[in-house]
Amino acid sequence: MKDSYPRIVADIGGTNARFGWLGSQHAAMQHVRTLECEQHAGVAQAVQAYLSRAGLPRPVAMAMGVATPVTSDLVKLTNRPSWSFSQTGLREQMELDHLLVLNDFTALALSIPDLPPHELHAIGGGRAVQGQAVALIGPGTGLGVSGLLPCGPSWLPVCGEGGHVTLSPTTPREAAVVQALQQRFGHASGERALSGNGLVWMYEALCALDGQAPEPLDAGEVCTRGLAGDALCAQTLTMFCALLGNLAGNLALTLGARSGVYIGGGIVPRMLDFFECSPFRERFEQKGRMGNYLAEVPTWVICSPVSPALAGAARALDQSLLQAGMANTRGMEC
């Protein structure tokens, strides 16, 4: 893999594009930068802007996590559809020897085994059981879901779109909000509530239920006002945490995630004190006969200053190049 350097790694979301640089095989990641997606026409333009601003040469290889399913050569970001690109076209345009594109939460999941303890904030009790599955869920511009399954001495990441499963309410007021989201979008997925836009849509639904005209707030304003004590915004944040607990508990049961559930994304770390006192953990465990099972599953909020998905993308690229090398070796042997 020595000839596959230098490399770019990227974490491309609906709002921000984060980049890092790996100059050689054993070098630490350098030149970590965050660019606003709305300032650039597409992925290629953002990459070129990053290289230009950092004064970096053309890379040999690149791995990027993107906030969308990667199922074909054409990639279109779910929450920024104007950022669509052909993987083949991007590789040729940038003259790359290697390009790996994967889901951003798959990349984030791959970073979990190397996260330092001081970048994790425990919510509730529980104790991780070594060698069992890991779950990952994270509200940001969208709602990311992934996990890790034990596979011998290594891990197999879950590559799915669990953020779009149907939202499950518990209380009558939650049911009324979910019904409002169904009427508005046709399907009330987890992402329709548990995301930046979801905070706004839930706030507007709660205003309608209470016969109040909603103010034109964005997600940051809903969060700020809620933390400051505004009644409807605080209700929005509380419902957000409760519904996230519902979904995280479902995910933990589905994967058998006894090694723990990790909460990523950009929203929860910004309201950590509120989240710790919220209904999240109660709802996480509120699964009837499986309550005792989930009480033993730890939950952590990822509080990393730099996107861990960059390290996960780097690990995925290492694995991809190793597998390609092994395949080439087998071909030569034949």
Can you tell me about this structure?
With 334 residues, the protein is of the alpha/beta class. The protein has 2 domains: 135 residues, 2-Layer Sandwich (Nucleotidyltransferase, domain 5), CATH 3.30.420.40; 186 residues, 3-Layer(aba) Sandwich (Hexokinase, domain 1). 39% of the residues lie in helices and 22% in strands. The chain is built from 11 helices and 13 strands. The strands form 3 sheets. Strands 8-13-12-9-10-11 form a 6-stranded mixed sheet, sandwiched between helices. Helix 4 packs across helix 5 and helix 6 crosses helix 7. The longest helix has 25 residues. The protein is globular, with a radius of gyration of 21 Å.
Helix and strand topology:
Blueprint (H helix, E strand, L loop, with lengths): L6 E6 L3 E7 L7 E7 L6 H12 L6 E6 L7 E4 L2 E7 H7 L4 E6 H8 L8 E4 L10 E6 L3 E9 L2 E4 L14 H14 L10 H14 L9 H10 L2 H25 L5 E3 L8 H5 L3 H6 L5 H5 L3 E4 L6 H25 L1
Parallel strand pairs: 1-4, 4-7, 9-12, 12-13
Antiparallel strand pairs: 1-2, 2-3, 5-6, 8-13, 9-10, 10-11
CATH fold-level label of the largest domain: Hexokinase, domain 1
Question: What is the CATH top level name of the largest domain?
Answer: Alpha Beta
Strand order of the largest sheet: 8-13-12-9-10-11
Low-confidence stretches: 326-334
Number of helices: 11
Query: Can you count the beta strands?
Result: 13
Radius of gyration based on Cα positions: 21 Å
Output mean pLDDT.
Answer: 94
